[in-house]
Design a protein that fits this description.
YunC_sf, 6 strands, DUF1805, globular, 6-stranded mixed β-sheet
Length: 100
């Protein structure tokens, strides 16, 4: 099952997506510029094989809900996210606000 929900972040409405899969749930919160995602996100792939796309994204691990994704420290971020001042250890909320 796929669930789309509005997620308020610092007075801005972003799109939360939950994809229920056998034994796991994929989570992402996005705005027009970038996104944060659960541990399923392969930052290395985005930085290396898809570098020409300039994807702005961050990855948090061990999260099970959209709220946890907002609160958790990012474990890794893309090179393009770093250019915006988004760094590992930053909360998902802070990263999304830097993506505006």
């Amino acid at each position: 099952m796929v669930t789309l929900v509005p997620v308020a972040v610092g007075g801005h409405v972003m799109l939360g997506v939950e994809v229920k899969l056998p034994k796991t749930t994929l989570l992402t919160i996005s705005n027009d510029k970038g996104y944060i995602m659960c541990g399923a996100l392969d930052v290395g792939l985005l930085n290396e094989r898809l570098a020409d796309r300039g994807i702005i994204a961050g990855r948090a691990v061990g999260v099970r809900t959209l709220q946890q994704l907002l609160d958790a420290p990012l474990e890794s971020v893309t090179f393009e996210a770093e250019k915006l001042g988004i760094v590992p250890g930053m909360s998902g909320t802070d990263a999304l606000l830097k993506m505006l």
